[in-house]
Amino acid sequence: MTERPDAAVIRAEVTVPLVLADGFSTTARVLTFDGLIDGGEHLAIGLGDVSSSVPLVRLHSECLTGDVFGSQRCDCGPQLQEAIRRITAVGGYVMYLRQEGRGIGLYSKLDAYALQDLGLDTYEANVALGYRADARDYTVAAQMIHALGLSRVALLSNNPDKADQLARLDVVVSQRVPTAVHWCPANARYLATKATRGAHTFDPHDDLRLKA
Mind listing the domains of the chain with CATH numbers? Predict the structure, then answer.
């Protein structure tokens, strides 16, 4: 049984030209909203031809260290850049969600990093700090999708929890489209943990357990 969340409305829309670090350029429509359930300043970033009946949508949780500073402890920055390029090509949205550190906040995420340096994995570190292993809630993403008038989406993600939560919030996910695996030595254990603990699905040719 699905449950549609409280309605949100589009607050404003602005055009922002984007240039990624590799020189890829595109033009984004950045939308803000009123009525989001958590009061956060979440964004919908429209890319390419957004008139598709089934747009490609990425739910991307904010990661200051990865998205802005290029940290290699995670794959967030490369995933965001991949999403911008792929969604521009086919049309759709990046939902940029202010859920740093799987929902625990920036300072707590850095505290979790310190625990990871002592041997805990990313999920264990969040729990040791008194949080859920993954505290993210995608209700605001569903609200934005409904406010945009979308009836169904193709979801760009390896994380089945995103699709499951959207389905419970009355969003039809017609397809889950896998993202690439952005592996490097610094994030090998992080990626392997997402596969083994977080049930993330990866291309079978990418053997994360061996790489870790």
Answer: 9-99+136-211 (3.40.50.10990), 104-135 (no CATH)
The CA distance from 199 to 201, in Å, is 6
Per-residue model confidence (pLDDT) at position 202:
62
pTM: 0.89
Instruction: Report the pLDDT value the prediction gives residue 197, as an integer from 0 to 100.
Output: 65
136 catalytic residue (yes or no): yes
Q: How does DSSP assign 6-37, residue by residue?
A: PP-EEEEEEEEEEE-TTS-EEEEEEEEEE--T
Q: How far apart are CA 119 and CA 128, in angstroms?
A: 12
Rounded Cα–Cα distance for residues 142 and 155 (Å) = 12
- Catalytic annotation present for 134: yes
| Cα 126 from Cα 84, distance rounded (Å) | 29
Other beta carbons within 10 angstroms of residue 130's beta carbon come to 8
Which among 67, 136, 197, 209 is annotated as catalytic?
136
Which of 67, 75, 121, 134 is catalytic? The answer is 134
Q: Locate tokens 């009355």: which residue?
A: 170
User: Taking residues 163-180, what's their average pLDDT?
Assistant: 94
Is 201's pLDDT higher than 80? Answer: no
Report pLDDT digits (tens) over 62-121. Answer: 999 999 999 999 999 999 999 999 999 999 999 999 999 999 999 999 999 999 999 999
CA 189 vs CA 63, 105, 207: distances in Å: 18, 21, 12
